[in-house]
Amino acid sequence: RLLAEGIHPQRLLLEIHPLLMHEDPGFGEVAVLNVNRLDWRDLSVLRRYVYDPAKMYASWVRSRVLPCLSHRVLLQMHWAPSWLEPAYRNDHLVMTRLDRSGWTPHFCDAVNPLQYRLFLEASVRAYEPAFNHYHITDMPDRAVREILDTCRHERIAAGLFLMPEASDFRAAYASDTRGRLDDYLAHLSKDYETPVFDATFACRDEDFADGHHLLPPGAKAFAASFRQDVLRPFLGDGAQRLQTAGDGDRPAAELAGRPAASHPSGARR
């Protein structure tokens, strides 16, 4: 969409969500794809990443034929929030907290131990297929590589990063998952000469609402470390060395001219 509108970024920092690199029918991003928000150009891209393209096109046509129906929840949120069904009221609360940059904080500022445990269990259940049978599947891998291929073709400097996770959320992964993920990211980094910034261990457990969504105080603290450990080396003078240095075994933190991160994985190349 950016390129089609004539917007050509110099750099792209792409989040890798480990659990969404595993995708099966009924689980993954395509399983919750909202076709109402797509335009015709989007379909030509996404058709390569859905299990049933014909169904996606049919749903999209219906959403265009009856927009008052397909967008009814958004219309209710704006004009008649009291009419919303209970399932959508939390979405409305989130949308009312949208800031000028398009970000929304977590719906609560703090959780007690019982709430955290309940939210954590719900999160682990939601990602259960990936936790129990983790492997990097074809479609997410192709999507990531297509983005990186586009960046290479358009001369856009790309970087990859992982967001923080709490220790008890990480404990739900199978024992060999982290090794598989590290190997995958190492191959991506080598294939595309792209730095990888790993912030998995950057936050305390008490910073999270459910093991992987940061509470507002935790997000504020993480923003400072993200700026220092990821954005500055990626966007600053060190970014050029990250992209051109030939020693693929040296960590990205070292190439950027700063100490390696203090957590086990650190920023890596």
Question: Which terms summarize this structure?
Answer:
269 residues, mainly alpha, disordered C terminus
Q: What share of residues is helical? A: 40-55%
Q: Compute the gyration radius: what is it? A: 20 Å
Largest sheet: 4 strands, mixed
Please state roughly what percent of the residues sit in beta strands, choosing from under 5%, 5-15%, 15-25%, 25-35%, 35-45% or over 45%: 5-15%
Q: How are helices and strands ordered from N to C?
A: EHHHHHHHHEHHEHHHE
Q: Low-confidence segments, ≥5 residues, pLDDT <50? A: 241-269
Count, helices: 13
Spatial strand arrangement across the major sheet = 1-2-3-4
Average pLDDT: 85
What does this molecule look like?
This protein is mainly alpha-helical and 269 residues long. Strands 1-2-3-4 form a four-stranded mixed beta sheet, with helices on both faces. It has helices spanning 40-46, 53-65, 67-70, 72-79, 86-96, 113-126, 128-132, 138-154, 167-170, 177-192, 216-235, 238-244, 252-255, and strands at residues 11-15, 157-162, 196-198, 267-268. The model is unreliable at 241-269 (pLDDT under 50).
Give the helix/strand layout.
Elements: E1 11-15, H1 40-46, H2 53-65, H3 67-70, H4 72-79, H5 86-96, H6 113-126, H7 128-132, H8 138-154, E2 157-162, H9 167-170, H10 177-192, E3 196-198, H11 216-235, H12 238-244, H13 252-255, E4 267-268
Helix pairs in contact: 11-12
